[in-house]
């Protein structure tokens, strides 16, 4: 098993790193995304993540496979949360292992960049005076 | 034909899914029907249609049993 | 406190990530280095890390400060092990937090690249038929 | 003057530190004394000298109380 994909309420950095750790790869690059406490200076009280889960899992799997076949990655884990989250909490973890650390960094960055563009997950920000689906409007 | 709606599209439609009386032949026709029923969908930065969990182009053909989803701008991560 | 530097027998990814997690930074890049089980096809049984600890801490601090002043990093943790390690065990963890994830990746890569060039830490590999200080000879 | 040795330099010298009778005036002179005492140091890919925990250049001046260290090629990470 070289790919771990999951969407669930709680995720940890450790489970992603543990999955990709192999004695034949010296380098693991990881991206950890957390909830920011403000957007454009406005305090965010909490977030809500909605997922079209079956399609999101397929899109995450595509991203993961691309890093294995095209970017020199041996193992990759991509974990994303769903549901309510508070500032500081972890919302996404990507860990990529490669014999070459430059490849691991490149794959990790590719994975988070592509996730943010293509994976059907939506974030709603709750402010003191209302709520907004992020990036919905121009 | 059942259509799933997510994020702000769900809020605009006021429901997580709607049912169309007939399956439009092409994605472009489906999109036009959705825009007429929910004009606020036009105001979104983008509005993709997924057919059977894969992003579809306007020229793609639809089958009655397809799983359709309205995908407003994603914002995961 | 925006910099955590440490050299000790056991390190974890989680302590580095926990240190740099702040509600005002959405992105954390991490590098995790582990012991490989082979060098040029030859099985490695174990490693030993020797450190000139006081100077190594100063060099690590320099690397960390550079990422804060020049690379847009808000918080960084650099942890390195000393002593005996087995294949698969973690030997170095670098975690960098920035409001911009590209900056976090760049800083993490800069830190591990520079660490490997300048920080006075030495790795000895133990093979079935002998032992070698890594990279000592041309 | 006390000189700390690490990694393969420690193995070559057979000790983690040695004492020189007098403090050489410059790093270059110290380096030459070390090479004469331990010719195998010349075979290393590099051999840096640190003075008071900072990498030194051959032209740098030494003081009697300085903390000197022989830094063979590093291999951390």
From TrEMBL, chains A, C:
InterPro entries, per database record: MoaE_sf, Mopterin_biosynth_MoaE
Phosphoprotein in keyword set: no
Pathway the protein contributes to: Cofactor biosynthesis; molybdopterin biosynthesis
Chemical reaction(s) catalysed: 2 [molybdopterin-synthase sulfur-carrier protein]-C-terminal-Gly-aminoethanethioate + cyclic pyranopterin phosphate + H2O = molybdopterin + 2 [molybdopterin-synthase sulfur-carrier protein]-C-terminal Gly-Gly + 2 H(+)
Coiled coil start-end: none
EC annotation from Swiss-Prot or TrEMBL: 2.8.1.12
GO molecular function: molybdopterin synthase activity
GO BP of this protein: Mo-molybdopterin cofactor biosynthetic process
Entry-linked SUPFAM superfamilies: Molybdopterin synthase subunit MoaE (SSF54690)
Domain of life according to the entry: Bacteria
Assigned keywords, A-Z: Molybdenum cofactor biosynthesis
Record's subunit section: Heterotetramer of 2 MoaD subunits and 2 MoaE subunits. Also stable as homodimer. The enzyme changes between these two forms during catalysis.
Family that this chain belongs to: Belongs to the MoaE family.
Designated name of the protein: Molybdopterin synthase catalytic subunit
Species of the source: Chitinophaga agrisoli
From TrEMBL, chains B, D:
A GO molecular-function descriptor: nucleotide binding
Nucleotide-binding as UniProt keyword: yes
Coiled coil: none
Domain of life of the organism encoding this protein: Bacteria
GO CC list: molybdopterin adenylyltransferase complex
InterPro entries linked: Beta-grasp_dom_sf, MOCS2A, Mopterin_synth/thiamin_S_b, ThiS/MoaD-like
Keywords on record: Nucleotide-binding
Protein family according to the UniProt entry: Belongs to the MoaD family.
PANTHER family, alphabetized: MOLYBDOPTERIN SYNTHASE SULFUR CARRIER SUBUNIT
Name this protein carries in UniProt: Molybdopterin synthase sulfur carrier subunit
Organism ancestry: Bacteria, Pseudomonadati, Bacteroidota, Chitinophagia, Chitinophagales
Record gene name: moaD
């Amino acid at each position: 098993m070289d790919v771990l994909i999951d969407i669930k309420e709680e995720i940890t950095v450790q489970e992603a790193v543990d999955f990709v750790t192999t004695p034949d790869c010296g380098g693991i690059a990881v991206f950890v995304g957390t909830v920011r406490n403000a957007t454009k200076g406005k305090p965010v009280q909490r977030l809500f993540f909605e997922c079209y889960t079956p399609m999101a899992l397929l899109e995450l799997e595509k991203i993961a496979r691309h890093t294995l076949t095209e970017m020199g990655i041996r193992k990759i884990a991509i974990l994303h949360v769903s549901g309510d989250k508070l500032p500081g909490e972890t919302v996404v973890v990507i860990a990529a292992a490669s014999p070459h650390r430059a490849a691991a960094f490149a794959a990790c960055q590719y994975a988070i960049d592509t996730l943010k563009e293509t994976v059907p997950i939506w974030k709603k920000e709750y402010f003191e005076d209302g709520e907004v689906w992020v990036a919905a409007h121009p | 034909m059942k259509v799933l709606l997510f994020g702000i599209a769900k809020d605009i439609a006021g429901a997580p899914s709607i049912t169309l009386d007939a399956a439009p032949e092409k994605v472009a026709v489906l999109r036009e029907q959705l825009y007429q029923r929910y004009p606020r969908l036009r105001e979104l930065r983008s509005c993709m249609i997924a057919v059977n969990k894969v992003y579809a182009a306007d020229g793609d053909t639809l089958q009655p049993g397809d799983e359709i989803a309205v995908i407003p701008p994603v914002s995961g991560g």
